Amino acid sequence: MELSAVQTNILTLLVVLVLILPLLLHKIEENLEIFLFACGVLAVTVSRVWSVPLIKTALEDPIRITLAVLAAGILFRHFNVHLQKLTHKAIKTIGLQWTLFLAVLLLGLTSSLITAIIAALILAEVTVLLPLSREQRTRFVVLACYAIGMGAVLTAIGEPLGTVVISKLKDAPHYAGFFFLIKHVGWYVLAGILLMAGLASRIQPGKRALGLHAAPEIEKEHSVKSILFRAGKVYLFVMALVLLGDGLKPLALQTISHLSDNWLYWINTVSAVLDNATLAAIEVTPAISDRSITFLLMSLIVSGGMMIPGNIPNIICASKLGIKSKEWVKTALGLGALLMTGYFILLHIFM
């Protein structure tokens, strides 16, 4: 649908507000799920795309993730003692730095098979047990979520982005199969995961390190009330992103769908707040070149780590660990900018 000038201006302003208000206003940061839900409702209303299928999708899409969060919460509630012992043993045997390195590396490499959701849930549980300060934990989680987001895109089952791309390119001329995404971005993703693992291994516990949680704190973390509350927040968060994505889709179609590789690469930074699978659905067509596919995927993968709404692992870990938008951006934004610039240069050299 063609947007009027008024609709375009309102939706553009909405994107700006979604980007900056959680960083400026503590009240919005504390109630990010409700804020994004309100923005999603407004975006859909302004774009005039309300429909029964959209409402059904908004209600159904969060179910799988919410059930995974619930199931994992219950499982970890019962098996947390074993995870504690494993974490203790790893730190004692190979040291904290190697433990951080291997955790990020393994979660990044396996996320395309166990899914980004499961990898994020494991990450959140492990992070709670690490002898790190709050700031160090946030940094570790951001690095690990970047690694998970990168790794998960390599197959159609890791996260929706890979599913959308392979689905849209399964026929001629690309005939995308299981190894299609590995072929196009595999080496870049592997390099990124190794970099994130290396950066994680450099985290040094300071004087304010929290230490491994005491039993009462873990009990509170895994109470039924806490598990249900986190699952509810994740459900509302994902629903909000579905609405926001569909509401902003007409704006994206109108403004970014016909741009060059270079422009798309940088404009795709909006996936920091807009689901990257939605952008991929707009930008990927059978006529797309191999070069464009690589540019598009790398920009969506990296920019998705910059803010909490940009990727499912971010949402799950931030919700479970109580990481605020300002804390996330403080660590992730500069790193994301460096990664975006680095990959942009590498892609121009090797593509």
Write the layout of secondary structure elements.
Layout: H1 5-24, H2 26-30, H3 32-47, H4 52-94, H5 96-114, H6 116-129, H7 134-152, H8 160-168, H9 180-200, H10 215-221, H11 224-255, H12 261-267, H13 276-283, H14 290-303, H15 312-321, H16 325-350
Helix pairs in contact: 1-3, 3-11, 4-5, 4-6, 4-11, 5-6, 5-7, 5-9, 6-7, 6-15, 7-9, 7-15, 7-16, 8-13, 9-14, 11-13, 11-15, 12-14, 13-14, 14-16
H/E topology pattern: HHHHHHHHHHHHHHHH
Mean pLDDT: 87
Give the terminus-to-terminus CA distance: 35 Å
Shape: globular
The major β-sheet equals: none
Secondary structure tally, helices: 16
Oligomer kind: single chain
Helix coverage percent: over 70%
Count of distinct strands: 0
> Which structural category fits the helices and strands?
mainly alpha
- What integer value in Å does the Rg equal? 20 Å
Spans with pLDDT under 50 lasting ≥5 residues? 213-218
Instruction: Give the strand content.
Output: under 5%
Number of domains: 1
Would you give an account of this structure?
The chain is mostly helical and 351 residues long. It has one domain (57-237, 278-350). It is 77% helix and 0% strand. It has 16 helices and no strands. The chain has helices at 5-24, 26-30, 32-47, 52-94, 96-114, 116-129, 134-152, 160-168, 180-200, 215-221, 224-255, 261-267, 276-283, 290-303, 312-321, 325-350. α4 packs antiparallel against α5 and α5 (96-114) packs antiparallel against α9. The longest helix is centred in the N-terminal third of the chain and has 43 residues, at 52-94. It is globular and about 60 Å long. The two termini are 35 Å apart. Residues 213-218 have low confidence and may be disordered.
